[in-house]
Design a protein that fits this description.
Elongation Factor Tu (Ef-tu), domain 3, 2 domains, 4-stranded antiparallel β-sheet
């Protein structure tokens, strides 16, 4: 076999280029394509991108997957999904996803960036390592494609400014307890179901929780930013 240095250099790597290597277990000699190596790096998270997770879109929930919307659903129309507590690289995503409630996330198809949805995470309800994710769509393009990989990443446009957390009080009450997870003492505006501003007492429990107290019970919404 000739010396490796005697072979010409190829600086234009394409998907079907390949390398000789050793496969484990078994220590067998194999060809590895550039496309296969790139897929491995993406799925296993070997090239770390902060605040990004990878899930596969499936028609039934399984480890590393998300499901719920029908195949071919418009990404701009998604309002809920079921999502595994671990992504395809088997990393535990639960604490991070819970932290993101009230914030914005971009869900985009790998290798097809124009297929994406930009959402606010309204809630993340966990049950046996599978969560129901409730979303408000901000913008989107394209449709979901079964068995494709999707990146889930924290994403806020600079034009959006500080995120707004919207809390809905469905039943009339004089005291509203709100977990907003904004990590600060936010400003608060409250309206009733007739879109009339209602003033009350704002009690900051900590950086992620507040309590609103009113002289009379009513239902409506609170906007925190």
């Amino acid at each position: 076999m000739a010396r490796i240095s005697s072979y010409p250099r190829d600086l234009d790597v394409v998907d079907q280029d390949s390398w000789i290597g050793t496969s484990v277990p078994g220590l067998q000699t194999r060809n590895f394509t550039a496309a296969a190596v790139a897929k491995y790096l993406n799925i296993k998270g070997k090239i770390s991108i902060s605040a990004q997770m990878v899930f596969k879109y499936k028609d039934a929930i399984e480890s590393g997957a998300f499901t719920g919307p029908a195949d071919g659903s418009a990404l701009a129309g998604i309002t809920t999904m079921q999502i595994s507590g671990v992504d395809v690289s088997n990393q535990n995503t639960i604490p991070f996803m819970q932290y993101l409630v009230g914030n914005n996330i971009l869900i985009s198809e790998q290798n097809a960036i124009s297929n994406f949805g930009h959402f606010t995470i309204d809630s993340y309800a966990l049950n046996n390592n599978v969560a129901t994710l409730t979303l408000t769509n901000l913008f989107g393009n394209g449709v979901l494609d079964l068995d494709k990989l999707y990146d889930f990443a924290v994403f806020t446009l600079s034009s959006q400014g500080a995120p707004t957390f919207v809390f809905t009080q469905g039943a009339a009450a004089t005291q509203w307890s709100i977990q907003h997870n904004l990590g600060k003492f936010p400003s608060v505006s409250v309206i009733n179901n007739n879109n009339v501003i209602i003033n009350g007492e704002v009690k900051y429990i900590d950086n992620n929780n507040i309590q609103l107290n009113f002289s009379a019970g009513f239902s409506g919404k609170a906007y925190l930013n």
